[in-house]
Amino acid sequence: MLEGKTFFFVGAGNICESMVKGLLSTGTVRPGDIRVSNRSNQERLNFLRNYYGIVPVDNKKSAAGEADVIILAMKPQDIYSALQELTGAVKENQLIISVLAGIPTSLIEDGLGLAVPVVRAMPNTSCAVLESATGLCAGRYTNQDQLGLAAEIFRKMGEVVILEETLLDAVTGLSGSGPAYIYYLVEALEKAGENAGIPRELARPLVLKTLVGAAKMLLETGEPPEVLRQQVTSPNGTTMAGINELNKGNFQGVIRRAVLRATQRSRELGRIIVEKQCAQQ
Ligand SMILES: NC(=O)C1=CN([C@@H]2O[C@H](COP(=O)(O)OP(=O)(O)OC[C@H]3O[C@@H](n4cnc5c(N)ncnc54)[C@H](O)[C@@H]3O)[C@@H](O)[C@H]2O)C=CC1
Ligand SMILES: O=C(O)[C@@H]1CCC=N1
């Protein structure tokens, strides 16, 4: 279903590059089938063309009119100006995928003034290594085939979960932002290893293999994390001593608050952007 489809990215930043890298490495999408536009940064477009062989475009209207799939990948704050640029070019038989945090599908449908199929997606940057966790929901005018195409695109780059739109902000707070939490944990572990006397160049491989090994154990054994944790935790041993310290800092509570705050921020972004737009009209 994906072979021969053409893609147009509006916004050529981090998530665009992660998706381009992922899509090309699947072998199903050819560089010539990916067009990309950015706002006033020719250097970035040149880099993407030279490195990935994809096609930079200046004329967004004509690129939007020609693509099978249009992927909105600008910051949420830039959505209205982007929609303005695309109005009149997009047709009802195209698929729009928005990866924007906080932006509801209805805003895009109404902004384009068209009964156009929109899929709101929340992938993460691990698209680049085909290990994204992506949440998807369908807009008002999206049929099962169109949702299926979006799911296929992201399934090529990892795991896909289809849910109600009301849950997309929570997906953003959990797995959209999630890689950053994990990288932050890795940073903290590396520094902690150094603090305990292990040179940084040795701490890093120890931490990375611990991370990958634990993820693989979770995936391959199918055991719940608490069971695997208990297998490491000897009574009155070293792990218990370490976990007691984490509990003193309310580790689980901190993580819960982080995901909740990121979820709220996603909702807030959508609300603020709509309010600002209404105030300007
Ligand atoms: N970075 C991440 O890990 C993830 C980001 N997202 C979402 O993806 C979107 C983009 O995020 P990033 O790639 O990190 O941002 P970024 O700032 O790296 O890239 C956005 C790009 O869009 C361009 N842009 C803005 N308005 C435009 C327009 N009208 N036409 C063409 N290009 C335009 C900007 O010049 C910029 O280069 C955001 O809405 C974010 O919520 C979603 C999942 C993960
Ligand atoms: O930080 C952000 O707003 C975006 C959305 C999910 C990941 N990065």
Automatic annotation (TrEMBL):
Residues of the Pyrroline-5-carboxylate reductase catalytic N-terminal domain: 9-102
Swiss-Prot/TrEMBL GO biological process terms: L-proline biosynthetic process
Cross-referenced Gene3D superfamilies: NAD(P)-binding Rossmann-like Domain, ProC C-terminal domain-like
Start and end residues of each Pyrroline-5-carboxylate reductase dimerisation domain: 165-269
Pathway per the UniProt entry: Amino-acid biosynthesis; L-proline biosynthesis; L-proline from L-glutamate 5-semialdehyde: step 1/1
Enzyme Commission designation: 1.5.1.2
GO CC annotation terms, alphabetical: cytoplasm
Record's subcellular location: Cytoplasm
Binding site for NADP(+): 73-76
Keyword Oxidoreductase: yes
Catalytic activity: L-proline + NADP(+) = (S)-1-pyrroline-5-carboxylate + NADPH + 2 H(+); L-proline + NAD(+) = (S)-1-pyrroline-5-carboxylate + NADH + 2 H(+)
Superkingdom per UniProt: Bacteria
Major site of localization recorded for this protein: cytoplasm
Enzyme kind, highest EC tier: oxidoreductase
Presence of keyword Lipid biosynthesis: no
GO molecular function: pyrroline-5-carboxylate reductase activity
Keyword tags: Amino-acid biosynthesis, Cytoplasm, NADP, Oxidoreductase, Proline biosynthesis
NCBIfam families: proC (TIGR00112)
Family: Belongs to the pyrroline-5-carboxylate reductase family.
Its biological purpose: Catalyzes the reduction of 1-pyrroline-5-carboxylate (PCA) to L-proline.
Name the record gives this protein: Pyrroline-5-carboxylate reductase
Native species: Desulforamulus hydrothermalis Lam5 = DSM 18033
Gene name per UniProt: proH
